[in-house]
Amino acid sequence: MIKAGIIGATGYAGNELVRLLLQHRDVQIVWYGSKSYIDRKYASVYENMFQIVDETCLDDNMDALADEADVIFTATPQGLCASLVTEEILNRAKVIDLSADFRIQDVSVYEKWYGIRHASPQWIGEAVYGLSEINREAIRHARLLANPGCYPTCSILSVYPLVKEGWIDPNTLIIDAKSGTSGAGRGAKVNNLYCEVNENIKAYGVASHRHTPEIEEQLSYAAKKNVTISFTPHLVPMNRGILVTAYASLTKDVTEEDIRAVYEQYYGKETFVRLLESGVCPQTRWVEGSNYVDVNVKVDPRTRRVILMGAMDNLVKGAAGQAIQNMNLMFGRKEQEGLMQIPMFP
Amino acid sequence: MIKAGIIGATGYAGNELVRLLLQHRDVQIVWYGSKSYIDRKYASVYENMFQIVDETCLDDNMDALADEADVIFTATPQGLCASLVTEEILNRAKVIDLSADFRIQDVSVYEKWYGIRHASPQWIGEAVYGLSEINREAIRHARLLANPGCYPTCSILSVYPLVKEGWIDPNTLIIDAKSGTSGAGRGAKVNNLYCEVNENIKAYGVASHRHTPEIEEQLSYAAKKNVTISFTPHLVPMNRGILVTAYASLTKDVTEEDIRAVYEQYYGKETFVRLLESGVCPQTRWVEGSNYVDVNVKVDPRTRRVILMGAMDNLVKGAAGQAIQNMNLMFGRKEQEGLMQIPMFP
Amino acid sequence: MIKAGIIGATGYAGNELVRLLLQHRDVQIVWYGSKSYIDRKYASVYENMFQIVDETCLDDNMDALADEADVIFTATPQGLCASLVTEEILNRAKVIDLSADFRIQDVSVYEKWYGIRHASPQWIGEAVYGLSEINREAIRHARLLANPGCYPTCSILSVYPLVKEGWIDPNTLIIDAKSGTSGAGRGAKVNNLYCEVNENIKAYGVASHRHTPEIEEQLSYAAKKNVTISFTPHLVPMNRGILVTAYASLTKDVTEEDIRAVYEQYYGKETFVRLLESGVCPQTRWVEGSNYVDVNVKVDPRTRRVILMGAMDNLVKGAAGQAIQNMNLMFGRKEQEGLMQIPMFP
Amino acid sequence: MIKAGIIGATGYAGNELVRLLLQHRDVQIVWYGSKSYIDRKYASVYENMFQIVDETCLDDNMDALADEADVIFTATPQGLCASLVTEEILNRAKVIDLSADFRIQDVSVYEKWYGIRHASPQWIGEAVYGLSEINREAIRHARLLANPGCYPTCSILSVYPLVKEGWIDPNTLIIDAKSGTSGAGRGAKVNNLYCEVNENIKAYGVASHRHTPEIEEQLSYAAKKNVTISFTPHLVPMNRGILVTAYASLTKDVTEEDIRAVYEQYYGKETFVRLLESGVCPQTRWVEGSNYVDVNVKVDPRTRRVILMGAMDNLVKGAAGQAIQNMNLMFGRKEQEGLMQIPMFP
Predict the structure, then answer these.
(1) ipTM for this prediction
(2) Which residues of D touch B194 (CB under 8 A)?
(3) What's the pTM?
(4) Which of B284, C213, C326, D79 is 20 to 30 A from B27 (CA-CA)?
């Protein structure tokens, strides 16, 4: 039985971790951390957990938590995990950080895009980037895991095979992404009120969103050269889901069938990446509540571009589900354990 | 292993049956019946099932199905199940009917409210009304089970204890119910288009909705006298969920604590009925995707009325989940088997 | 030209006042008051007004405002208007208060339900309750107008004729109301975040909502006796709209036609109350963006109750539109001036 | 007084034409054409028009209609207008076609993308493409006007100045567009049901959407060479609104200020195109119900691309509003007449 502690258990990603971990047969949650709700019943903050979770929220004491837990999930704003993690903690518990603190290897890039000083750059080198389908072996041996961002997960998995194979020019990549509103978190902000989000769509963070360097770094590894992309996120009036529509110029004369064969080769044995049938566009509704990423491709012979598409649930594969997938790998469990929820529709 | 067949597998309730049965460790689905999609891949109708369900849709042949299945679910419009069921079928397989055909004991009441002729009234007497929390023992021995309607399930469970105890005058009951749009089914009708439902709320079937006599019959058994109620359903712009707000005059001078004690007595040992803490109103978001019904009560001393409230997921406890709960009882399984999904939020 | 000032111009009702007043041919807005946004461009708070409103937000100085304006609208939380209004101000400008401060004649009732001390009870007697269809003559001569609450407007207009005629027993009245989320205001609260409201319906303020005594007082005048009702509001995932479903016992043996004839008599000449054709239920989508209230009735012979229904836009007839309707009356203008917007669908 | 007839008055665009024309002081609607609802009261199909429109739906007889009307709007599926228009009709009435029949000059391109045979190619040459801001002078003299598609209107206006000036390479243009669901029309299709659209986002018509050649043709005129673009539409769970996010490579070293100056030069005097302040992204909520298109630009120095953005209401500027703007020009009226509705929020 893996003992798990959560710091930031009352955010949306934290609550999703609770939902999924409770359904994992080999995990026990031992710590519901939430600075804002200390001493309050967890189930009074999230009534879905009424009569399911009896525990009370605790504080952010990662040191005490490391004594009780085998794994610590930090589902907190940037900066917190970096400020708490120590050698002593990592000797006692594995840490899976859902924030961006350890995703980017170049600390100056992190500090520039996030606008904060990194509190423990010495750990960046050890941290493993937890995109399970791509970094599986390294993840198995990680003590400190950087769980990928929601947009990067969907973006990278949607385009990775063609970048890796060199079939597209990665510097022509334009990633136009759309996210449900749970990605904006549970903070009380006017911009996230129902009446502000409903009946609206907008781009935000244009040419400046923090997930850009994360995507670029991972694609640079795949391309074996520096990659610079355009990335634009949009806010969509729905609770869950990310859709990626990516455009890139082909470097060689290939057909849709050729490209699908490559995707099949990369993802054919993956449980959680589903290459849809030819001509079927990914839609967020078909993955809601599950750890699946649905991908597909479309060649446009008129422009010699390929359109690469992906859909997933931002709270599952884009956050809590992938964190558990990584936990399974780190603890030698079956990767799919606790993650075989069937997408719920409608 | 229980072999299950579904007639009407491509409606919303049918798809929810598939989702839940696939997660039931002791069930195998052997028949995906769908007259509209015969020979088409089930997963091409419901892409959430891609790479999960490989089967193709079959027709409505209940006789052939009875050879292959231990249990047949009919998730079809009124009239179909009644037209198909025979002694020969019931000898081979148990039938759980999600339509209204066998819910109402008085065939003239059925024919008046539903406006169709009942094709096999001879089976009505044998059919058991499958509100698990109330009819548990009879359900265990049923061959033909009438799965309750969505509104009746939420309405009856919300008010049952006080009707049964005689603490309210059942003829003062006014049930104002609100449902998500999946309850309207997947038929292509202008009234159910996105732009017609979104940004709108309306009452429908005022003083004439077919679930009225079903609620009245069950409450009459509880009250041991004829009960006539007001029932008004409303359509709400959301996918899932039913909320019941019921009003009734108290027959005696009792406090909220007294009433909660009665509810505790009726539901304290029930897994799927959660009596919320005092002052907490049921909300559909806290039960989405699960088999729970959340209930609570509020006494209004100014009017000497009590307000009884309930919330549930219309596709789970209001349809597929309750059908599986009944199946578990009918086959001697643990009632909760396959039904412990934690509500998904947001 | 009527010079109008708005205190609270950056709330949802304030912005709706701006939208409607700008389309009124006989009004000029001279003061955009907003304590939270002083010195900020109004159009940067509400970008719909970009290139339409060039003004900057000012503070709440009602005294200075009274020098510049003929009419002052206060679209602010309870308590503010009562704390600001003085004889000197009322001598210079008419005041239309969209808060509850002057709606309730009995100050102890106000203080009990609102939980605050009334700062200027001496003005309550002079204030006129601005339900235009019912109080038209008194409104024409008012200096201080109490604009009705959103729920009371829809509730009272839906039931008024039968209460006035004595055809229903008003103490059997149960008003089950449903509102869009703009009614909750633009404050940054977790409960009003998109993900909390979307895919959810809930009751709130059960047996304790502040609009209850306002409805009761007005119905008591109509009934010429004290009326006590049940009133339950619900929050619906949509931006705009209120739907009222009201239930009452008939005191005499009347048909739907009889009742419709009474409604025709009361509302036949009213521009903004539309008695729908027999059998057509009011829906919020058909009144969105307009000052209309759609009403209809349904007799249930089984229960000898009548169901009275109404739908309106909470920000127009329920707030800003009705305030302008009252302004027109107070300034001797045509009542419909600036208010003939056609409902926008979808 | 301009007498207007509408063929296809019961679609969403038709109903929006009715809403707007009724508020135009110089127009009288003389014909509500709707093949599906002949002899039915218009207001029973669209209850928002109750007590506002008393007329009954008529058939598609364009010849009879030309005797009664000065202008005929066809808000019908592709093919119908082309099959009805004749010299005799055009001699008596001006025709504004909201379908695609006369938008594309090359009939073979039309027939290839739309998959139907054009019934009257002889009129294509005379038809004027009605993007008012760009074709104003030609529109004034048109008899037969091709009202632009919704996506083309928003797309072209968002990118036009830079294509015209040659500051971007038009063949690098990637237009990622997002639309509310009213754009899909009022036909009863499973894909447009509430539960299918809600909580979902999808791309559709990838590399094959019919609006692609329309955009390309107009941009080719601006660029004075053949332009081939990538265009991908997406369906968003909201009623109204189109958002365009377009990406292109800059051909010269310019700043955001330089580009904004060009946009200012093109649109500074336009009533309906609003260049937002620097850094403010267009959002559909700020234009709902109005004829405005909000545009803005963002230079990304990292990629030497510019991101061009636009937002508008698909039923107003994208259909009915622009049709009326064109009508005003064709009849010598003030272009803004009847179109100064302020965007409604929320």
Answers:
(1) 0.97
(2) 181, 192-194, 196-198, 237, 239
(3) 0.98
(4) B284
